[in-house]
Write a structure and sequence with these properties.
InterPro entries: Reelin_subrepeat-B. By secondary structure, this protein is α+β, with helices and mostly antiparallel strands. Among the domains are: 129 residues, no CATH class; 42 residues, no CATH class; 168 residues, Sandwich (Jelly Rolls); 52 residues, no CATH class. 36% of the residues lie in helices and 17% in strands. It has 25 helices and 30 strands. The strands form eight sheets. Strands 12, 14, 15, 17, 20 and 22 form a six-stranded antiparallel β-sheet that branches. It is elongated. The N terminus is likely disordered.
Length: 951
């Protein structure tokens, strides 16, 4: 083994040592051998004898790396008294000032590549050594602080010859006293403020400012558009017969249904003509006699799907959004058939198809009329409904009249006591000699008559042959005269005079529509039936366990398990196969809480580990007059603190009591034997309620201990010494170099901020459950859905989420040039693309599981819906990234009644803990913070923050 003897004198003169070509070759061979050698523990103090003969490899090894790394170092003559061997990574980490000068001419990509290569090499070596139990930790000595701060070194100050610090502005060394004495660098004259407030800010440029205005304008337009759409959706939403709310955004009455009027609980109840009660029964061609055809919408998606589309819908009474675009004529394509006060029931309907329809088409007598296509058929059939298994048959026949002596058809007695209309299609023989089957009608007008008695018929409609003869059927709708109103009126289609050999005519799709009683909406019978209909509809929702039914609805309807057997297509498995919306809100809140705490815990842990290696030894100075330290006390008012506690605690107690009472939990602890309530606790509901309880209690505790600080004094310390340079608020240390602005805010601003925290502390999770127990008609679902969404947002963005929204709105509406420049700098910050990607990914992993958890057949997301959600998520992430560059994240200490105070803006800088130390990764988690605190001596506190000693 080659050995050499080194003395201190030889080590102190490294520049005079010359290396031969042989020695250089030997060093390269040893270098390649070290790369191939497995990791093994090595004692750094290993020597061969007491005379000082040291192994050459050990001698040139880096003195700062752990021994197991076996890193070869370069001799650094300026380190220590006699120099040291340091590898590139240790040299850069511990003495970045001189390293900065040595590598000034290297390109940036080469410096970053060397840094990444050293990190990978050290990481792999440490991992293998740790796995083999051979890792050793060396004692690290002098370290620098982070890359964006000053670099301590051993070089003397250029002015007073004391220990100096490397200054980036002029690449020279000055002590703190000399550098900060005049407020400008002695070398280059650049401003040298003690805090970041005095640091000059670069102008973002007109483009960035223009983009900030564009973002504000886009957000304002989007908000106005969204509010307008919501308003338009509410105002133009369809109104149904039994008061249900149609589902979806901009719902329409797109279903065309045929309802058996006698199949429900409706026809003739109490002798009054009012709409049929729910649940509706779909028309059946063989058994339905009286039927209702109308446009409908879905009010319960789960019930509609799981009942095979026979439940969960209601007939529309009005639809303002569609009334101007869809025809109300029953003979048109896709008509809008609303159930208004003038609507009614088809008491007669015959399409003349086989088999015949004796129930819905009771003819008393047909003379010389046959089911045939001799004169063709009506090619445009009227709307009869196409829903729930009911389908109209293909039109192949009409009622064709020919023959001698008499041609007529008369119906049985029908109930039209409130009037109505007669609708049919008429065709008379065309003027065409080639058409030998349907003989030409040169004469033989047709009359429509009503008969109150079998032998007494009065005509009220005449249809001349010249007008209705031709190749196509013509639609006719004629109102029933008032004299014909009775509960047993017959209608007769008659041809009085005709030529026996010709004058053929045909009718098709004959329907008689009887009106309901006038003002049926205001009748007591309708009010009673409405209550019964809602109860029956709720029973169906509760049997299927849909979102329209909660535990409170089950108790109010007195639902029994046996009642569900009468529900069409009832399947017990559907009730247990998905989560309800209020369960999803609590589940999302739980997942958001777990994910947020896990991310924050891991990120903060590894960030702290990464920042430890930048810990530095303080270069203390005795210039206490130039760099003072002051302590202030936050103003505390117990009356304010306990008032907030009373508001939040009272709201929580009221919501909890209402929830327990509606769940009949209070009956389990009551001794009142005469009470109608029974002790019946649902385990799943209790679990969800307890989870919601924990969320609300956690939020209240956070506000009381971290915002209001009840019974806890707050100390505010400002230390201007450059070695420390901190603003300490309640054990939280903020570097003064990260401060960017201090601004006076009036009491109104603090009042609004306090109100935001109070709103965030309200029991949203429990409230979303308790609101289901109130009978608020159409408002109930909107309210508990809103509270559920707010509870999820509170877990994602913290208890300050309302305050963040308030501050975001303020910044979107700012107009001053200074604020617009700050907005422009936020637009230019790094990491915005990463924010967009993260937002898109979060939207994707949120939307897809939501639809899967719902398990509703018609609610599967399409590709377009999924892409829209991903795009909106990315845009939301982009906006969040921009807002991270603005002080919209409050750190509030609201310990007294709102008053004028100074709000401090500082940059909460996060360092990427990963191997590559990506700058954009750190920027994603960094943000501007707005510190709101009221101290005793406001003016002195403001001067200290600006680096001025308050003398």
């Amino acid at each position: 083994m080659n050995q050499r003897v080194y003395t201190r004198s030889s080590l102190s003169q490294p520049t005079s040592i010359t290396q031969t070509a042989t020695e250089e070759a030997r060093r390269k061979v040893q270098h390649f051998k070290r790369i191939s050698r497995r990791v093994a523990p090595t004692r750094p103090e290993a020597v061969d004898n007491e005379a000082g003969v040291i192994d050459d490899e050990i001698l040139e090894r880096c003195t700062r790396c752990p021994p197991h790394r076996r890193r070869r170092g370069k001799f650094r003559p300026l380190i220590g008294n006699d120099g040291e061997f340091l590898c590139d990574s240790c040299y850069l980490a511990e003495f970045p000032a001189t390293a900065f000068l040595d590598e000034a001419e290297k390109p940036e990509w080469q410096k970053r590549g060397n840094k990444i290569a050293n990190k990978i090499k050290n990481g792999v070596t440490d991992f293998l050594a740790d796995a083999m139990g051979a890792a050793e930790v060396a004692s690290f000595g002098n370290r620098s602080i982070s890359e964006d701060t000053k670099f301590p070194s051993e070089v003397e100050c250029r002015m007073c010859l004391e220990k100096g610090v490397f200054r980036r502005c002029c690449t020279a060394y000055y002590c703190h006293s000399c550098y900060y004495k005049s407020g400008k660098c002695p070398g280059c004259g650049k401003d040298s403020p003690l805090t970041g407030i005095g640091t000059g800010k670069d102008h973002p440029g007109n483009l960035a400012i223009g983009l900030s205005w564009a973002i504000s304008l886009a957000m304002i337009c989007a908000t106005i558009t969204l509010l307008a759409l919501i308003y338009w959706n509410v105002v133009t939403s369809p109104v149904t017969v039994w008061g249900h709310t149609c589902r979806g955004f901009f719902p329409t009455c797109e279903l065309t249904v045929c309802i058996d009027y006698d199949g429900g609980n409706g026809y003739g109840v109490g002798g009054s003509w009012i709409p049929a009660a729910q649940p509706y029964r779909v028309c059946d061609r063989a058994s339905t006699s009286n039927q209702v055809v109308g446009s409908a919408c879905v009010y319960d998606n789960e019930l509609y799907v799981w009942s095979n589309k026979v439940m969960g819908y209601d007939i529309c009474m009005s639809s303002p959004r569609e009334e101007k675009t869809r025809s109300k004529n029953v003979s048109s394509v896709n008509p809008l058939l609303l159930y208004t006060e003038s609507s009614g029931v088809y008491v007669f309907d015959d399409d003349f198809e086989l088999p015949s329809r004796p129930k819905s088409a009771p003819w008393r007598e047909i003379i010389n009329g046959n089911f045939s296509d001799l004169c063709g058929v009506n090619s445009v059939s009227p709307e009869r409904g196409n829903h729930g298994g009911f389908r109209p048959v293909e039109n192949k026949h009409a009622l064709v009249f020919s023959g001698v002596h008499a041609r007529y058809a008369v119906t049985s007695g029908l109930n039209v006591e409130y009037g109505g209309t007669v609708e049919f299609y008429l065709k008379m023989g065309p003027l065409d000699d080639l058409d030998t089957e349907c003989k030409t009608a040169y004469s033989g007008d047709v009359a429509l008559e009503y008969c109150l008695h079998p032998d007494e018929c009065i005509p009220f409609g005449f249809f001349p042959a010249w007008k209705y003869r031709g190749s196509a059927f013509q639609f006719i709708s004629i109102a029933i005269p008032h004299d014909a109103w009775s509960n047993s009126t017959s209608f007769c289609f008659r041809q009085e005079s005709f030529d026996d050999m010709q004058d053929y005519w045909a009718i098709d799709d004959v329907r008689i529509h009887a009106n309901l009683q006038s003002r049926w909406l205001e009748s007591s019978a309708f009010a009673q039936r409405q209550m019964k209909s809602k109860s029956d509809a709720m029973q169906g929702s509760c049997c299927y366990g849909t979102d329209q039914c909660s535990i409170f609805d089950k108790r109010s309807t007195l639902l029994q398990a046996s009642d569900c057997d009468r529900i069409p297509a009832f399947n017990e498995n559907h009730r247990k196969s998905r989560l309800k919306s209020h369960d999803l809100y609590i589940l999302f809140s739980l997942l958001a809480l777990i994910a947020k705490n896990a991310y924050d815990g891991l990120f903060n842990h590894y960030t702290t580990m990464a920042q430890k290696k930048y810990h530095t030894e303080s270069l203390q100075s005795d210039a206490k007059d130039q760099f003072p330290r002051s302590t202030y006390h936050a103003v505390v008012d117990p009356l304010w603190q306990y008032s907030i506690a009373l508001i939040l605690g009272g709201a929580f107690a009221c919501a909890l009591y209402r929830l327990l009472e509606s769940l009949t939990v209070t009956a389990c602890f009551s001794n009142n034997e005469g009470s109608d309530q029974s002790c019946d606790i649902n385990a799943s509901v209790v679990i969800v309620s307890i989870t919601a309880l924990v969320f609300d209690l956690k939020s209240i505790k956070t506000i009381m201990t971290r915002v209001i600080f009840i019974q806890k004094p707050i100390l505010v310390i400002v230390d201007l010494h450059p070695d420390y340079g901190i603003l300490q608020v309640n054990q939280k240390e903020i570097p003064l170099t990260d401060l960017s602005a201090v601004r006076s805010r009036n009491a109104i601003f603090v009042w609004f901020l306090s109100l935001c925290y109070i709103l965030a502390g309200l029991p949203m999770a429990i409230g979303s459950l308790a609101l289901r127990s109130f009978n608020l008609h159409g408002m109930s679902e909107l309210l508990y859905t809103t509270l559920g969404v707010l509870a999820v947002l509170r877990e994602i963005f913290g208890v300050a989420f309302v305050a963040k929204l308030f501050l975001c709105i303020q910044w979107i509406l700012v107009s001053s040039q200074k604020d617009r420049e700050d907005f422009g700098r936020a637009v230019q910050r790094e990491g915005l693309i990463q924010h967009f990607i993260i937002g898109a990914c979060v939207a994707f992993v949120t939307v897809v599981p939501t639809f899967i958890a719902r398990r509703i057949g018609i609610a599967n997301p399409g590709v377009l819906v999924l892409l829209c959600c991903v795009l909106l998520g990315g845009l939301f992430g982009l906006i969040v990234g921009v807002m991270h560059g603005l002080p919209v994240h409050p750190d509030s200490y609201l310990t007294c009644w709102p008053a004028t105070c100074y709000c401090i803006t500082y940059y909460d800088r996060a360092r990427c803990p990963c191997l590559f130390s990506c700058k954009s990764c750190g920027e994603i988690n960094s943000r501007q913070i707005l510190l709101v605190v009221t101290v005793t001596d406001v003016l002195a506190f403001n001067k200290m923050l600006k680096g001025v000693h308050p003398r």
